[in-house]
Structure formats: structure tokens, C-alpha cells
Amino acid sequence: MTFLIPLLIGLAAATPAGVLLGRKLLAGKLKNQELEIKQKGELLLKEAEEKAEILKKDKLLEAKEKFLQMKMNLERENQQKLHSIQDNLAKLKERELFIRQKTEENQRKENEIMRLREDIERQITFYDRKKEELDKMH
């Protein structure tokens, strides 16, 4: 028993030191774990930011491609409409030319008819005078 008392005293003195040492070791381990978790969190955040940036670039590229496709479609539609307008304009010019030619032809015919009418009226007048002269002679 004599050796039990110094052992108990030593145990009583070592226990608080062991608890303090255990706490210090545990605190260091927890600090290392916290640091490790923080580093993993920062790494995950960095990876997430990189993925977000890549996704952003992909979406932007998709939007640009869609815009260019829409622009090409609109340009194609505009070209078709312009071609249709040009075709219609050419048809209108052809019709205008045809109408102008018909109008000129009708005007020439009308002038010819007027000239013929005047000739006939002159001839009638001439024949009427001749008839009167003949009638006077008889």
C-alpha cells in the first residue's frame, strides 16, 4: 500500500496534465481538420466557379450561335422578299411598256382615222362641188 499512495498522487498530478495535453492535441487535430476542410471548401468553390465560367461561356456561345442563325434566317427572308419585289417591279415595267406601246399604237390609229376622215370630208366636199357644177351645167 505504501506504493499506492505515491501512485495515486502521481496519478492525480498526471491526470490534469494528461487532460491538458489531450485537449491541446485534440485542439491541434481539430485545427488541422478545420484547415483541411476549409482548403477542400475553397477548392470546391474554385472548381464550382470554373465550371460556372465554362457554363457561362457555353451559354454565351449558344446564344451567339442562335443570334447568328436568326440573323441568317432574316437575311434570307429579306433576300426572298427583295427578289419578289424586284420581280413584281419588272412585271410592272413590262406592263407599263406594253400599255405605253398600245397607247402609242392607238394614238397613231386615231391620228390615221382623223386624217382619213379629213380626206373623206375633203373628197365629199370636192364631189359635192363637182356635183353642183354638173348640176348647174345641165
Features:
138 residues; 1 helix
Topology:
Elements: H1 4-137
Protein model, in words:
There is one protein chain. With 138 residues, this protein is mostly helical. 97% of the residues lie in helices and 0% in strands. It contains 1 helix and no strands. It has one helix at 4-137. The protein is rod-shaped and about 200 Å long.
Question: What share of residues are in beta strands?
Answer: under 5%
Number of helices: 1
Structural class call reads mainly alpha
Largest sheet: none
Q: Helix coverage percent of residues?
A: over 70%
Uncertain spans? none
Rounded mean pLDDT score = 90
Q: Work out the number of β strands.
A: 0
Give the CA-CA distance, first to last residue. Answer: 197 Å
- So what's the overall shape? rod-shaped
Q: Write down the secondary-structure element order.
A: H
Radius of gyration, in Å, reads: 58 Å
What's the short story on this structure?
The protein has 138 residues and is an all-alpha fold. 97% of the residues lie in helices and 0% in strands.
